[in-house]
Amino acid sequence: MQGVLRLARTMHYGVCLKNFSDFPGGANMIDRLDSNLRFFQTAMNLRAYRQELLASNIANADTPHFKARDVEFSSALSNAMSGKTDGPLGMKQTSARHLQAEGGTPYGADLKYRTEYQGSVDGNTVNMDIERAAFAENAMHFEALLTFVRGRFDGLRTAMQSQ
Taking the complete model, does pTM exceed 0.85, yes or no? Predict the structure, then answer.
């Protein structure tokens, strides 16, 4: 148990992870944990990004000519898990003197305009019913992901305490 506490302190304070190699199978264990939780981390980051987009749509419901935007979560997650992070238009640095540009969207999420169901006089495409429903659904999926991650950590905690 003492070794586990030392591991936790090492991770919390951001000290180099080479200390894990002092333990039998420690570095391999961390790699397995990282790869196991990477899916949940990516999915939660994409859910948070989508929540920001939906909140922006709701906040701009009365802004003339505002176009509601959203991402297709399943394709964005598959792009992120396959390593495609450039988005539809990747930025290329052609000179060493150019500034680094943040092109595209996070995790290669393809940002799209929402389909207009009912036109408005001012050109705004935000439908509050659809935006609120999408916001609530996305929040529910985010909470479900948190529950899954919490369950994974509870299982790990139980496994460590039983030894």
Answer: no
